[in-house]
Amino acid sequence: MNLARRTVLLSVILLFGHIWGAAAQNKPNVVVILIDDLGWADPGCYGSTFHRTPNLDRLSRDGVRFTDAYAAAPVCSPTRAAILTGKHPARLHLTDWLPGRQDRADQKLARPKIRQELPLEETTLAEALKTAGYATAHIGKWHLGGEGFGPEKQGFDLNIGGDHAGTPLSYFGPFHNQQRAMPGLEQSDSSEYLTDRLTSEAERFIEQSKDRPFFLYLAHYAVHIPLKAKDELIARYRSLKPGEHQTNVIYAAMIESVDESVGRIVRKLEDLRLAENTVIFFTSDNGGLSVREGANTPATSNHPLRAGKGYLHEGGIRVPLIVKWPGVVRGGSVLHVPVISMDFFPTILAMAGIPLDQPVDGVDLVPLLKNGEIKRDALYWHYPHYANQVRSPGAPTGGGPGAAIRVGDWKLIQHFEHGAHELYNLRDGIGEETNLAEGMPEKVLELGKRLHEWQNSVKAQWPTYNSEFKPPTVAQTSDGTILLHSGDAAIHGQQVRYEPQPHKNTVGYWTRVDDWVGWDFEVTRPGTFVVEVLQGCGKGSGGSEVELNIAPGSSIPKTQSSREAPGPNVQTLEFTVQDTGHFQNFVAREIGRIHVSRPGRYTLSVKPKTKPGVAVMDLRQVVLKPVTR
Questions:
Q1: What is d(CA 448, CA 445) in angstroms, rounded to the nearest whole number?
Q2: Final residue of a structural domain among 410, 431, 457
Q3: Closest-CA residue to 304 (of 578, 516, 46, 44)
Q4: Burial 132-165, CB ≥16 within 10 A → b, else e
Q5: SS3 629
Q6: Given 429, 457, 485, which residue is the final one in a domain?
Q7: Sign of the alpha-carbon dihedral angle for 190, 191, 196, 201
Q8: How many CA atoms lie within 13 A of 205 on its CB side?
């Protein structure tokens, strides 16, 4: 190559290098501060009169505060996956904290098998930003997979403190035990507090990256249990008058340390003259822990919101969100538009001028932040698990498998165990105090169908019947009727299941002739009963022959096949399924009579003998009606 050509080539390289460098310098730095289990009402700028959060309050005055921001799930790992990928946890099949709670005998439903790590094939925020020239750091809690699936495998240049664990080895140094150390914290002083140490590591990364755009993901372990705080802060809160709803002094002290961390990060950016070119996001991964779970809990009250972590009520999924974007967002502004965790991904890429080259479930909030509007039909949640949090005494709802949808001010919560529904108008009360479901069945049906269509679109996973569960015994009513509803059925088989959607509320997916269902019930007033089934069947699928057996005792052996002949003392009725034109078009049919001569426990089973169509039927209920003589 001659000298002239070399000179031209060098000039081109230098020119493109200069252009790339200038473009990189124009890109904003991005800092995402994620707090673990911080409640919506915990910061002062969200109404707390007990917790001291001057730095968060200042951040709110300098940025925009969202009143209707939501976590993608009522627990941590799914929300973290949603923030980093822009995809809904249901689509990722990562819907519970990892590894998740094991099934128990007191649970009617068994959890679906979920991903135990953030899939490597997913593009993360760190990977997208790194490709555009960003330095990237993860500091704090990861909880999205162990060895081979850590932050360094997902686009982060630096990882301090993040591994498979959901809780720290210790909130005070040393941050290790005999088996392992928290990554990057192998050397630590016994007087160090974890929140402070992680902040110091974040400050160090900012200093080292000040000459290029950077992405800092500071995911504090605080304020997750076990509740541990610095003694001097605890003592200060003990000297204060407790709040009307928030009274936990250890938790309050942890929040103050988090607030100090935010102040330190902001000051470091200001000292390095980076503040005007840095976007800061501050949020939480789910609602505050409002029930007893471990020592020194409940941690907080989410009042005026209902419930907390682990619940699909507002207290479990509504979270604080503050965004500071100098020169763009007007300081002290408040937005009431519903937003959710998946929005971080497309929003941050848009801020950095990076094209979105993959479909995501989140919405770019940049137009909203610039005083414009965004288009979104609904927000969805799908949580097919039992949470660790204590369930409401005597109630089948809350902290259990379910789903939710918010459309405008309307919110529907669907509970998978028994098909119960809760309908609220959040404009009339964010406390979800008045369930409107019974008086507005059309609205329940409308929202329930939309939720179900979305669940199908993301291939959401469903819980299955727990074979170790002992079903409840259905009691005879005061007029002698015995109502065996599909929501109380014991499910025996591979495909048949209870479907809680409001337009279904039935035993369905009965596509195998060997699958069957049954109920235990108690007879206190013996006699003769008319047996009525409420069944539906799709066009062309009628004609299945079905056998209904009633026997004394309880819990027909799980090993009994639908092909085996019934034992002694068993009364049998048979009927042929009627084509009703649609599986959710139910008709009531009297199929015969049975006689119960003695009080006691009985079992009723419904077993197909043939299946000429795609499915046996949908069965909403079986009713035993006493015959009056």
A1: 5
A2: 457
A3: 46
A4: bbbbbbbbbbbbbbeeebbbbbbbbbbbbbbbbb
A5: coil
A6: 457
A7: negative
A8: 28
Q: Are 56 and 39 in contact (CB under 8 A)?
A: no
User: Which residue in this structure is represented by tokens 């968060």?
Assistant: 56
Give the model confidence (pLDDT) of 77-114 as tens digits.
999 999 999 999 999 999 999 999 999 888 889 999 99
User: Which residue range forms the structural domain that includes residue 281?
Assistant: 12-98+116-359
Interatomic CA distance for residues 71 and 465, integer angstroms: 28
Residues 32 and 56 occupy one common structural domain = yes
Residues 20 and 142 in one domain: yes
Please pick, among 51, 143, 385, 485, the residue that the annotation labels catalytic. 143
Cα 594–Cα 596–Cα 601 angle in degrees, nearest 5: 120
Yes or no: say if 23 and 246 are a contact pair by the CB < 8 Å rule: no
Q: Show the tokens assigned to 141.
A: 């809690």
Q: Are the C-beta atoms of 460 and 382 separated by less than 8 Å? A: yes
User: Does the residue 57 lie in any domain?
Assistant: yes
* CATH code where residue 291 lies: 3.40.720.10
Distance CA 173, CA 294 (A): 21
Q: Report the C-alpha gap between 123 and 136 in whole angstroms.
A: 14
Question: What 3-state DSSP class applies to 421?
Answer: strand
How many domains does the chain fold into? 3
- Show the tokens assigned to 293: 């779970």
Let me know whether 207 and 76 are in one domain: yes
Q: Of the listed 45, 76, 220, 382, which one is catalytic? A: 76
DSSP helix, strand, coil percent of the chain (3-state; round to 5)? 25, 25, 50
Q: What is the pLDDT of residues 498-551, one digit of tens each?
A: 888 777 889 998 999 999 999 999 999 999 999 999 999 999 999 999 999 999
Contacts of residue 582, Cβ cutoff 8 Å, sequence gap at least 6: 536, 538, 539
**562 part of a folded domain:** yes
- Is 143 a residue of the active site? yes
Distance, CA of 519 to CA of 507 (rounded, Å): 12
